[in-house]
Design brief:
The protein is α+β, with helices and mostly antiparallel strands. 39% of the residues lie in helices and 27% in strands.
Length: 427
């Protein structure tokens, strides 16, 4: 119990300090709540048992579905190498043939006529060579006779000159001897020109013989192309021609498809390119039976390569056209088409490329030269930087997108059209 005088003194102190009044009221309220709330005096709930489990490591796989197309690994178009009329077709469309099997036979009447004509032309130029050689011998004989006559007329002229000096003969005889000597010299010069012309005719005849022999050999080779044979083992396609049709060189007769193994072309986004690797686990799934078939790929993104960067500022400073530098590099390391030429009734293409010994290493690239606009030869090492790197050796495309080739087989009893691809990419 507080005494009345003490209580009054305490209340006056509280009124002088409002903060203490508030704190006292809060303390009083809190104490009251604690006394009136039975939950505050209750005990805390008991702890529940928890089971712990050991955390392990593993591989999380992410799967994606892609639509692919199955294509034959190899397909060739059969074309004749000579002109002729189709004499017979020895196989039928859809038939499976082995390498070296005759597909069609051509009637080579024109080729045989070309051989006969070439042989006749060779005989003709051979006869012309004999005539030229005979004319050369005759011209050489005339030159020998003319040379002897010159020697005789010179001796006669010297003798006449001596007699004129001694007064034994008239000077007129000396003039006649001089004229005879000059005539003999002119005849000798003419004979020498005839010998030179005869020798040139012989050389031309020999060149004609070589050309005729080459034409004959080429015509004989054409006879060996009477039959069109299968270059690979595969299935014969459709024949756009029939027996009796005349075909030219390069015209399509049929196709040959090798489909023992099929290539699966997929369109995979480029942002997943680095997730691809050799022996990537890929599954080919039949949508009906869900049967899995193994599929593998030879794709790798770690093939050693060299990246060549041209310094455009340096090119401009040296007055070198960028396209000229790229063309020089592409021609030497790759190749560039020049023109065509015909030899023995066959057409050949000409390409320009550096020899293999001069394009084996990056140092060979640095030793290449490019011509500037000032007609100066500048080494590529001055304007190009070569950096070793890695990447895919071949980048395929499907429907305009970068793709990789996967190989696999459909299940026994199922067609390739019933297959879809499920690819797994490591996370």
């Amino acid at each position: 119990m507080l005494k009345p005088d003490y209580l009054l003194k305490y209340l006056s102190l509280l009124l002088a300090n409002p903060v203490l009044v508030i704190v006292l009221m809060l303390t009083t309220l809190t104490s009251g709540c604690q006394k009136n709330d039975p939950a505050a005096n209750a005990q805390s709930p008991p702890l529940l048992p928890v089971k712990l489990q050991q955390i392990g490591t593993g591989t999380i796989e992410e799967s994606s579905e892609f639509v692919g197309s199955l294509e034959a690994q190899q397909k060739v178009t059969l074309q004749p190498q000579i002109q002729g009329r189709i004499e017979s077709i020895l196989v039928s469309s859809g038939q499976r043939v082995q390498q070296g099997t005759p597909i069609a036979s051509l009637s080579l009447d024109q080729a045989q006529a070309n051989v006969t004509s070439s042989i006749a032309a060779a005989s003709s130029v051979q006869a012309a060579l004999g005539t030229a050689q005979a004319e050369q011998q005759q011209a050489e004989a005339q030159r020998t006779k003319a040379a002897a006559n010159v020697q005789l007329q010179r001796t006669q002229f010297n003798r006449t000159q001596q007699l004129v000096t001694e007064g034994a003969v008239a000077r007129q005889e000396s003039d006649i001897a001089r004229n005879n000597l000059q005539t003999a010299i002119a005849d000798l010069q003419t004979a020498e020109k005839q010998v030179a012309a005869a020798r040139a005719a012989v050389r031309q005849a020999q060149a004609n013989i070589r050309q005729a022999q080459a034409s004959t050999a080429a015509a004989r080779v054409s006879l060996n192309f009477k039959q069109v044979v299968a270059p690979i083992t595969g299935v014969v396609g459709e024949f756009p021609v029939k027996v009796g049709d005349y075909v030219n060189i390069g015209q399509t007769i049929t196709t040959l498809t090798q489909n023992d193994s099929l290539d699966l072309n997929l369109s995979i986004p480029s942002n997943r390119l680095r997730q691809l690797r050799t022996n990537l686990p890929v599954q080919l799934i039949d949508p009906t039976t869900q049967q899995l078939i193994g599929v593998f790929t030879q794709f790798t993104a770690s093939t050693p390569q060299f990246q060549i960067d041209f310094d455009r500022t340096r090119l401009e400073a040296l007055n070198i056209d960028f396209q000229q530098a790229v063309t020089t590099l592409g021609t030497a390391i790759g190749s560039q088409y020049v023109n065509d030429f015909t030899l023995g009734q066959r057409s050949y293409r000409v390409y320009v490329q550096a020899d293999a010994n001069y394009r084996r290493s990056p140092d060979d690239i640095r030793r290449l030269y490019v011509r500037s606009a000032n007609n100066q030869m500048v080494p590529l090492s001055e304007v190009a930087k070569i950096t070793p790197t890695t990447g895919p050796s071949v980048i395929s495309h499907y429907n305009g997108f970068r793709a990789i080739d996967l190989q696999g087989r459909e299940a026994s009893g199922y067609s390739s059209g019933r297959a879809s691809l499920l690819g797994f990419f490591p996370s």
